[in-house]
Write a structure and sequence with these properties.
Helix content: 10-25%
Number of helices: 3
CATH topology: Chitinase A, domain 3
Number of strands: 7
CATH class: Alpha Beta
Order of helices and strands: HHEEEEEHEE
Distance between the termini: 22 Å
Largest sheet: 7 strands, antiparallel
């Protein structure tokens, strides 16, 4: 189910910046006017706010660098990190590697905009509108086969972890976007629950 509690937390962090922009020629709201700087400012503000929360001792917020960088460079650039809010902590041990495969539930949306103040949902793993994990088969995917921000999150997750992950466009769908659903330069949020993972060369069993 879409995590409105998490969105509320993010909106509180980001309350000082508005979403709507107006076109100079028509005077009408344009969904994507200044979309790149708006998204960059959005992500940077949240990242800086989360840094302060972490500094204050909060352990439910985390910042991770892209999987291909060392932890020592965390936060050096907005486009090199993801922001994580831990919704549920799993009990599994170990984390998937870049060469592994996983089964996971996920729910994905763009960050808020004029028409979609709680974000536009563009993808999810659930088979029905109920978003019920008990009746939906978790999606099988290669850790190396998803966007960098998603891949980075998976490589830090344990089985049973449920995270909300904020991804800058540089670790998402970049400048080109994803079809018509996600324009270029879009900050993304993924709710991810890691259900299982499988080592390289291991057959991923049929889900029952």
């Amino acid at each position: 189910m879409k995590n409105y509690k998490f969105l509320y937390l993010v909106l509180l962090l980001f309350a000082v910046i508005g979403f709507a922009s107006c076109g100079e020629s028509s005077g009408q709201e344009d969904e994507y006017v200044n979309w790149q700087p708006r998204n960059e400012t959005y992500f940077t503000h949240i990242r800086d706010s989360v840094r302060q929360l972490i500094k204050s001792g909060r352990t439910d917020w985390r910042i991770y660098p892209i999987w291909s960088q060392a932890d020592s460079v965390v936060g050096s650039k907005s486009d090199s990190v993801i922001i994580v809010h831990v919704e549920e902590a799993g009990k599994g041990s170990g984390c998937p590697l870049y060469t592994d495969s996983v089964r996971a539930h996920y729910y994905a949306w763009r960050m808020p905009s004029t028409t979609y103040p709680t974000g536009y949902v563009f993808d999810n793993s659930y088979s029905t509108n109920s978003y019920d994990e008990s009746t939906s088969i978790p999606t099988k995917m290669a850790v190396s086969g998803v966007i960098d921000g998603f891949s980075t999150a998976l490589q830090h997750m344990h089985i049973g972890d449920k995270w909300s992950v904020i991804i800058p466009y540089q670790l998402g769908y970049g400048m080109s976007g994803y079809g018509t659903a996600v324009p270029g330069f879009s900050t993304l949020v993924f709710d991810i629950k890691l259900v299982a993972y499988y080592k390289r060369g291991q057959t991923v069993p049929v889900w029952k």
